[in-house]
Design goal:
disordered N terminus, disordered C terminus, 31% helix, two-stranded antiparallel ribbon, alpha/beta, Peroxisomal Thiolase, Chain A, domain 1, 460 residues, 16 strands
Length: 460
Amino acid sequence: MSELQRAATREKIAIIGMGCRLPGGASDYRTYWENLSQGKDCIVPTPSDRYDIRTLASQHQTKPGRLVGGRGGYIDGFDEFDPAFFGISPREAAHMDPQQRKLLEVAWEALEDGGQKPAELAGQDVGVFVGAFTLDYKILQFADLGFETLTAHTATGTMMTMVSNRISYCFDFRGPSVSLDTACSSSLVAVHLACQSLSRGESMLALAGGALLHGAPQYTIAETKGGFLSPDGRSRTFDASANGYVRAEGVGLIALKRLDDALRDGDPVHAVIIGSGVNQDGRTDGITVPNADAQVTLIERVCAEAGITPGGLQYVEAHGTSTPVGDPVEAGALGRALSIGRAPGARCHVGSVKANIGHCESAAGIAGLIKTVLCLKHRTIPPHINLEEINPAIDLASLPYEIPTRAVPWPDHEGPAHAGSIPSVSAVPTHTFCSKPLRRTERPVCRGNVARLPALPFCP
């Protein structure tokens, strides 16, 4: 390995700002933390402005054109947006994917939270890395076989590339602008790529995260047919009654800088990323079945590059989908990894925010990462809810960690606090963090009036 490669490996990346829209009315990370601290279950019946559950729901998984559950995690203000604030005409905004709209809002707020003035960043090497998965608004616009819903703004309004490019364009950012889809790990793969871009000097600041919003029922129906979803719409990660995951919405971005640059500039620092990595499961018993060996290998590698052992972690935010197959595999893999180098008596906790908000798919990783950062900042691990009886395939007594069902203080430790976040069982990035104190700066505040835009009707 060259000296440059070694330097890149050692580069620490500061999280200086965060913005999000998450279920339970969490229009910012402070409300999100309140929900988690209180052990709030944010999964609710599907709102009528998404699609009509009365005609689509069924308890019979195999019934054609029907979905099970009829519940999920949903954000507020799904169809609200102020286009003039971002220099966008109402006509264009009406054909923009709501994911693009909410990402613009959250990008502004993440920069604002980090004490950054977007106008002063125009023309600079600011990178944007965004993970996305389903494009429901594209389904709606292209479902009209009369093609009357297709306009001059449909292409840019529905292309996946625009989830990142729209931000770069509106703010005049000149760094890399990357839209990516690695399914459930998309948003943390985006963070991984952003960290690499900063380490290489391609970007002087980066926004990274992901989005997923529901506007059409097709993917929920398809996932029903695949047997992935909970028939009763309950998320019970690691519980004996776990019977599938619950789909959820989410939008989240974090603002990143090289740690040395952030300290030089007096930026607030929420936490520091000291290592990240990505791998894939390869061939398993099924394309959706996880590979425990791949998970352990990645955790070991990332921790080694970060200069710690997995046993030095005090908290891990697990993927934890609430599936009877995936949960035990991940629990066992974490048990193997977290025992490596763990001192006798050194406590560790594991949890999953999906028990609170459901599975945000392409935004699941960023939801878990923001939770992990907040745990570090508040030195508290919130309760892991909906765990009444541990899955019998998980021998919790033999594992080197606990799953707290009530809020607990951060475990005693020497040196900096360390935590990790694992977003996916197919492309598994692991992000390990070292906490840093928040330093407040004067932050610009600029928000426009919200205008409600028309939503396109669903055409069956």
